[in-house]
Amino acid sequence: MYDFHIHSDYSMDCKYLMEEMVIEAINNNMKSICFTDHMDYDVTENGIDIDFRTNDYFKKVKQVKYKYLKNIEILAGVEIGMQPHLSERYDDIIDSNPFDFVIMSVHSINRKDIHLDRFTCDKSPIDALTEYYEYLYQCVNSFNNFDVVGHIDYIDRYFDESTTLPNFDEYSHIVEDILKLIIEKGKGIEVNTAGIKYGLEYYHPKLEILKLYKELGGEIITIGSDAHSPEFIGYEYKGAEKLLRELGFKYIYLFKERKKFPIHIG
User: Fold this and answer.
1) What is the value of pTM for the model shown?
2) How many Å apart are CA 252 and CA 262, to the nearest integer?
3) 98 Cα distance to chain centroid
4) Which candidate in 70, 103, 140, 249 could, as Cys together with 79 as Cys, close a disulfide (CB 3.0–4.6 Å)?
């Protein structure tokens, strides 16, 4: 099992040490994990930067990597919170550090945090979804220095429980454009199993998006739990792998030193 989306106390929203996460990963028989701690620049109207000291980060990864070398493979990645105006800034930080893997996610839209600033609150569901996916397209279009797009339908977590989301057909054309662009750039997407944890009935992305990605010729795909605590490492991994196999995907991908490696499913 290979969990390529894990956080530690180097992320502001995680209190668990890397070593605690690694020990649980070993207990769960994981073969390889990748820490992907948060870097989110220029967030909220106050322009807050959420990041970590990369020297300390790589030093700590190196410590746990060699301490548990015989038990598990440990890699060092990053999850960037993309906004189009941040492209050069993220290029600089990624190019100057030896990340194995880069997830590009959208957590904020025009500096408005989707969760903290309640982005979906005063919008109709279709307007919120349209604005989100159009922004995601801009992010993918404006940036190349990433490996996969994280939790593509992340916004689904943040609608009121009583809200009925529009049928996928109503906004699928925008998602299709995004997926085509991802494939054209030679990038991939992740299956982020945290959707279930957050009360949805599906992983990120939902089944319709996974099917569309496959139909369009998409192949590069990773599996990540988005774990912020040890008990969620490898969460729903077998279920995600089974789903991908049923959809016709033959491989999941690992990334080391920004190079991709296919691993046969099952």
Assistant:
1) 0.97
2) 6
3) 19
4) 103
Which residues lie below 8 Å from residue 2, measured CB to CB, with a gap of 6+?
A: 30, 31, 32, 33, 222, 223, 252, 254, 263
Name the nearest CA neighbour of 158 among 181, 180, 129, 138. Answer: 129
Q: What percent of the chain has pLDDT over 90?
A: 93
Lookup: tokens for 217: 């010729």
Q: 148-149 and 188-192: which strand pairing?
A: parallel
Q: Which residues contact 142 (CB under 8 A, 6 or more apart)?
A: 84, 87
Mind listing the pLDDT tens digit for each residue in 21-52?
999 999 999 999 999 999 999 998 888 999 99
> With contact defined as beta carbons under 8 Å apart, do 148 and 190 qualify?
yes
Handedness of CA 54, 228, 242, 30 (dihedral sign): positive
DSSP letter assigned to residue 165: P
| d(C-alpha 108, C-alpha 95), whole Å | 23
Task: Look at residue 74 and give its three-state secondary structure.
Answer: strand
Distance CA 12, CA 232 (A): 17
Q: Cα–Cα distance between 205 and 182 in angstroms, integer?
A: 14
Burial code (b: 16+ CB inside 10 Å, e: under 16) for 247-264 equals eebeebbbbeeeebeeee
- Give first-to-last CA distance, the chain, whole Å: 10
